[in-house]
Task: structure prediction
Amino acid sequence: MDFASLAVQLNAGTIVPEAIVLITLMTVVVSDLIIGRQASAQWTPYIAIAGLLASVVALFYQWDVANPISFIGEFNGDALSVVFRGIIALSAATTILMSIRYVIQSGTSLAEFITILLTATLGGMFLSGSDELVAVYVSLETLSISSYLLTGYTKRDPRSNEAALKYLLIGASSSAIFLYGASLLYGLSGGETRLSTISASIASAGLAQSIGLVIALVFAIAGIAFKIAAVPFHQWTPDVYEGSPTPVVAFLSVGSKAAGFALAIRLLVTAFPLVSEQWQLVMTTLAILSMVLGNVVALAQTSMKRLLAYSSIGQAGFVMIGLILGTDAGYSSMVFYLMVYLFMNLGAFTCIILFTLRTGTDQISEYAGLYQKDPLLTLALSVCLLSLGGIPPLAGFFGKLYLFWAGWQAGAYPLVILGLVTSVISIYYYIRVVKMMVVKEPQEMSDSVKNYPPTDWTLPGMRPLQVGLVSALIATSLAGIFSNPLFTLANDSVLKTPMLQQALGRSKAPIAKQMAPTISQQLSLQITEVSTKKAVSLPKSMVHS
Amino acid sequence: MLSTLIWFPVLGAIAIAALPLRQSKLVALTMSGFVLLWTLWIAHQFDFTNPLLQRQEYLPWLEPLGLNYQLGIDGLSLPLLMLNSLLTWIAIYSSQEETERPRLFYSLILLVSGAVAGAFLAQNLLLFFLFYEVELVPFYLLISIWGGEKRNYAAMKFLLYTALSGALILVAFLGLVWLRGADSFAYEALMGQSLPLWIQIVLLSLVLVGFGIKIPLVPLHTWLPDTYVAASTPVAILLGGVLAKLGAYGIFRFGLGLFPDAWATLAPGLATWATVSVLYGATVAIAQKDIKRMVAYSSIGHMGYILLGGAALTALSLVGAITQMVAHGLILAILFHLVGVVEAKVGTRELDVLNGLMNPIRGLPMVSALLVLGGMASAGIPGLVGFVSEFLVFQGSYSVFPVQTLLCVVGTGLTAVYFVILLNRTCFGKLDNAIAYFPQVEWRERVPALILALTIFFLGIQPTWLVRWSESTAIEMVAATPTVTHSPIAQVSD
Amino acid sequence: MQLQYFLLVAAALFCIGVYGLVNSRNAVRVLMSIELMLNAVNLNLMAFSNYLDPQAIKGQIFTIFVIAIAAAEAAVGLAIVLAIYRNRDTVDMEQFNLLKW
Result:
């Protein structure tokens, strides 16, 4: 085999964005070694951000490639993966913006932090496109192991240590369980590791209904559910969120979660179409539990980071609605929600970081009366939280609307109604924070706010934080109103992804449109049919016969 | 341009919040004054004979969701828009000069006003829902920052009830659009009756309960007394005068307009529900010791007439119902305003303590006189606007629901009872000179009441000015609804 | 020898790993239990590879990756345990209760 044909077969062009991140990573490490810690802190973060943005630009050119499959089927750079890689890269860039001041103030090395973060990003980006069990596992572990390191980054803080240990133990055992599932898949398919061929081989071996496949599915879902922090695999979330450095939490809650969802879509849709009813049932259960438990337990929290931890569990439940539906609109609403979630959640974390840096606490009661001292922070945090709660006209409202609309179209009424009810509950705890900041009288001001230092944006690392804050604020308030491009992006990413289109093969058009002409005749029939199904009624065309 | 009505206040709100202006009240007053003039101009241009949407505006927005920017007015929304603009101006004018955090206060009021205008104008279900939810947080803040005692509790209760009402309405909208197989939430496209009746009834019930929370109807009203009482006067004026009308408007526009068959089927039940609301509100109001609370309960009763008029669904009763929305908005505003003035001057709202305010020397003669006028208007004394609307409602409904209508007339009688109690205790009797050292009533406090009183009086003796806006629309709405014979009720009345 | 025996051994090993994971109080022992689970997977993969996929031996390749990553994971895990021991003078899981709601 000569070099040219090998290069064609490898099709390495699809991983240019990852290569850019890798080069950036190496640059950061090497320049840190050469010029020393003090000097490198001045500009390595900006190199990293530039690299990540360059990677996003490179992704833009990957959007419509003719042949997305590379490395002999290891990696699939289709449109869906491009969107997810973009979300992950952007979340990493924003995380760096907000972490500069935080890391400097904590007295640890900035370049090392960025290196590990970039490694995690790399893992996440590869995970979004991995199309083969080995690649899935390796990129999953790249993401996970660097996340453990990030969690324990402030190594003199016992809370950070404890969070890292808990995260590591739970994470490692869940990935071991996932791996066991993967090994069963490998065996059942008679020695296939490519996701796309696994299901065909299992079907041809006549094992479509075997108990082994269901076990493999359950084990795989355990691994995925851990990454996206779905109940009951969420126990690590509050502890890790509370103990870790806040920028890390921001990355875990957006970047790492997005990677988890990318994995979920790809693995469940391509490797488990034979048991789609089962995985939809399991995921429905997880979604219901996540929405209920996440939003209800959040009511009782007193620490801001723990509040956001439970809120992010609830949010994951909302996103899972889109995953379960198995329609075009479902997947694209999920992608859309994740994009919107990126802005609002990172915005909220930027605000928390800023507050923690000035006051050293993240107790909700300490936010009392912040309005008097820092209107910008109050405004930004209020907007982001209200957006998470789904208040119009902020971005989160449109995200939820789209999710619920897609859910309703696919006939998942109980899920949508539960989603609505839990969002009403969630408004309660988000508004509690807003109330704390805005409503409290000057005399009710908390001690931390009384001693609130004047804002000094000229300190090293404060400028990026300000940029992150303002851009998150603008994005959260306007992304909803001007969300047409994002909508188009999300829809296209689903329409242009061959894997999803194949899975949806028998239901190309959205369900509602299909039925429109004959709606009046079918209606009564349809409704009785829907109401007799108990948990979630799936569009008929999706159920594999 | 209808959009001006939405975006001018919103831009004003942003400007007041963002720019370090000293005179935020003046700015807000100018803004809302301009909006009021603009509304009057639109009303002036309005074509009375045309029952359909006028001055439509359309901008494509989120096509995949079926959410587009569609506005328009007809005889149902125009009177309410005028009410909104007027009461916003009144609320801003009547707010205290030394309001705390004035920039936030006025910007929130303008924001609310813009959002409510948007909800009245929206011709797309999702757009309406969006505006309907936008006012949630501003109102929460308005109640919980500037409210009286128990404001936190009241504000949270308001928030949760309203959010729940929003969720129900959204479910109804999603259900309707999906079952109709439409790919857009445009209002016009969804009219007509192609759904089976029982589905219509289910969806209509969701809409009714959703908006019923907002109106509020018994037994969904428990947030109302707490919220109205806890809110400061300008906020209470907006809550009772404008926001409650949004619920009634929603029931007419999205209940009656979208599910006419189901509406016709449920009409007897609705009429009975309305009667229960009327009687409950009036009876509970009689038992109150706090005048603000009394006015709040009176509002529950009066909103019942609106539902009765809608349920009867004759052209006359529908016009009456729309008129009643405006009339009640004006009357509630003047009552809340005067109660606020009394509380500010005398320092209490307790019926047992208040006495003899009519006293021309030591009392508050002008305020008391206006209070008497407001009470009379509320009780439906002829010559004032309350009489016109209630008369239209009863006249129109009697032929369809005689029993319910008669019970509601009894409700009006009860209204007279508690207003006599209120006026007798507060205004008449002997003023205790020893404690009567009331601060001077300023013009700032008199002017809004005078304007409202004049409007109430003028529309009372010249009702065509109020009725003509909605006549053709009401006739059209009745014509679009199938007539269902309410045989059981007719038998009862025989 | 049949494939089933290997799978049974692997499953037993996996279960022992899970048992150890749940029941150990010492953090290092928990790490060791996780290693057991990973080794069970390796056994699975090797067996499948040998019986079902003797040509491409993808399972054996997979195993090599798993071993490498398990080493990385253990290294990071031990580093964290070391850090926590320095701060808290204990590696007892029951003592780690700073984070609780």
